Structure formats: C-alpha cells, structure tokens
Amino acid sequence: MDKILLKKILSDFQISDDLLTFNKISSGYINDTFKVFTNNTPKYILQKINSKVFKNPEYIFHNINLIKDNSVNIGITFINSKSNKPYTINNSAYWRLMNYEPGSKTFNTTNDNLVAFESGKVLSNFHEKLKNLDLTNFKEIIPNFHNLTLRLIQFEKACNYKENNCFNEIALIKKLSTNFDIIDNTKLEIRLCHNDSKLNNILFNQANKGLYLIDIDTIMPGSILYDFGDCVRTLVNTVSEEEKDLNKIEFNKEMFKFFIDGFKPSLKTINKNELKLLSLSVALMPFLHGVRALTDHLNGNKYFKVTYENQNLIRAKNLIKFSEIALLNKEYMTRLITKNSI
Ligand code: GN1
Ligand code: MG
Q: Could you point out which of 27, 94, 225, 241 has its C-alpha 20 to 30 Å from the C-alpha of 81?
C-alpha cells in the first residue's frame, strides 16, 4: 500500500499529527490493517474494510452507534472523519481509524494463568454489559455467519465443484459433523455477540490485565456459544491455528480452569440450554472455522486472504484436529462449567 495514499486517507480524519509512518500488520484474514506511528511511537490503527466480505460496511458502524446510543462503552472508539463520520471512503473502499491503546498487547497463544483468567473476565464483562440491549434495530452484518447447517451446504458445493485430493479431510468433516446435530440454531437465545472473540482479539496491558475486545466488525445478534467457543478454542490450544504439525496441538486444561474462573459472572446469568451446550461449543467453533477454511481452499481461496500455499488447507486440518481434541475434553469442561454455575 503506498504511503501517499495512506497519508491522504489519514488527512480525511480529525487528527493533527504530522510525520506519520506506517507498519502493515499481517495477522488477520480479512481486512488490511496498519499501525500508524509518530516519532516511532504507535499512535493509531488504520484499517481498510474488506468490501467483498462486508457487503454493507455501514452496518458495522450502525451497530456500534446503537451500542453507544444505549450508553454502553465497550472500549474501542473510532476517530471521526472531517465530515463527522466514523469512516472515510476512498475509491469506494471504507477506511476507519482508532487510537492505539498505549502499551497494550495481544497474545496468539498462552500458558499464563492470569491471561486465561483475564480473558474469561473480558468476555464475561462484554456480555454482561450488552445483555439487556433491545436487539430490534441491530443489523445482521454477515447473515448466517455461524450457521453450521449453511456452512456445511457451502462445503458440499465446494467438494463437488472440482476434482481435489482432500479425501481424508472431507471424510473427517462428514464424520464429525453429527456431533453437532444437537445444536439447533433456531432454539438458541439471541444476544448481541462479538462473533470473533478469539484470544488475539483481546487487548491486555503490560501487567497482563485484560482491557477489552478489539476487531468489532462482527458485533451482531448471535449466540453466546459462538463467543465462548471461539475464545476457549484459541486459549486452550497450545499452538496457533496455522501450526502444520498436528501432533503439537494439545488442550491445556489449566487454561480452561482459569478462564472459567474469570467467566463465572456470565455462567450465573445464562440459560440452562446455553449452559448445557457451552462445552460442545469449544468443538463447534473450530469445526465451523475448519469447514469454512476447507471450503475456501476448494473454491480457490476467494474469501480468506492467503499469504502462502495451502494456508487454508493447513488451517482447516489444524482446526478440525483441535475440534476432535475438544470433543475428548467435553466431560472435563462440563464438570467445571456445572461446578461454577451454581
Ligand atoms: C477471520 O480476519 P480475522 O482473523 O479477524 C474471520 C473469523 C475467523 C478468523 C480465523 C469476517 O477473522 O470468522 O474466526 O478469520 N472473520 C470473518 O479463524 O470471516
Ligand atoms: Mg475479525
């Protein structure tokens, strides 16, 4: 991305800094993200929203504004443009700017008890703050985002689309999918959810205290199962979802225990059906993401950004493997969830 364009875009926002420099942040499979520095100090995060994925980018801002109108502060705030919008449009692309939280950090994986506890706390706080909002006017930013039935239909289509050599992965997906038949999306309580609450979307301060959830593109109605499952799958997996050596994938029980301790306030307020399905959600979310990654691999990498060969396939194998491991730990999780919900 050229510097002149980035400077031009920044000049559309209500900021007065000069001598800005940029660093592209390469993690993230959807948007283009840049860290913006003044005098070598990180000051802002600038993002270009992926318009292929977000067909109505203004829905993102609509939902965030509704939260603000209800006087709920979820942490992130956008800097307004000179025309008083939380974004600017350049060449039909939406760009937005946020303040960089000084001294903050994120983790891709962890084995730190405090990080696990704080992650549970951050996720619980998020849901406790949002639980009483009237959902009527919130937009479904990506319809059916976490609807497994639909994701499996898309997957079937991709399998038939062309000759491929993913027989083992396809067979494994078909075999594992029956584990999730018990989750009926139409019977789940609909709440306002983050919908991408993985560990590296939680901001921490230097002392490893949890701050808030970032990457708020997908805040829309959904089920708490999705947020719980996404957070836990990344917290207890000893390696990242891009690790090629599947033997390195383990379920860190200690991380789960500390996470549950932090998440306790929400365990006391969610309903019985949700409580019953929480442990299964830790296998559901990596399974669903694995299905999505393999679907995209078969379709020729049209959805997720890929930076090396077979990236989607590697992610799919890893995510599906973790889902199998999570299923083996279901009883352990259920025991702790039950114990901490009374
Ligand atoms: C995508 O780009 P990123 O990492 O924020 C995806 C999530 C997946 C995640 C990878 C809108 O998020 O659903 O969990 O990759 N976001 C979208 O696992 O598809
Ligand atoms: Mg995201």
A: 27
- 85/50 Cα distance (integer angstroms): 18
* CA distances from residue 183 to 198, 256, 276, 292, 304 in whole angstroms, order as listed: 21, 22, 10, 18, 26
CA of 29 from ligand 1 middle (Å) equals: 6
Q: Reduce the DSSP state of residue 52 to 3 states and report it.
A: coil
> What does the pLDDT read at residue 3?
86
What is residue 164's predicted lDDT score, i.e. its pLDDT?
Answer: 82
Residues of the domain holding 192: 113-341
Last residue of a domain, one of 65, 99, 133: 99
Nearest CA to ligand 1 atom 1: 29
Neighbours of ion ligand 2 (CB under 5 A): 196, 215
Whole-number Å distance, alpha carbon 158 to ligand 2 midpoint, is: 23
- Global pTM exceeds 0.85: yes
Rounding to the nearest 10 degrees, give the CA dihedral for residues 177, 183, 185, 189.
-150
Residue stretches of the chain with pLDDT short of 50: none
Q: Tell how far the Cα of 339 is from the centroid of ligand 2, in angstroms.
A: 32
Residues with CB under 6 A from ligand 1: 28-30, 53, 196, 215, 218, 241, 289
Among positive and negative, which fits the CA dihedral 191, 124, 259, 78? positive
Say how many domains are in the chain.
Answer: 2
From the CA of 230, the nearest ligand is 1
Backbone φ and ψ of 28, nearest 5°: 100, 130
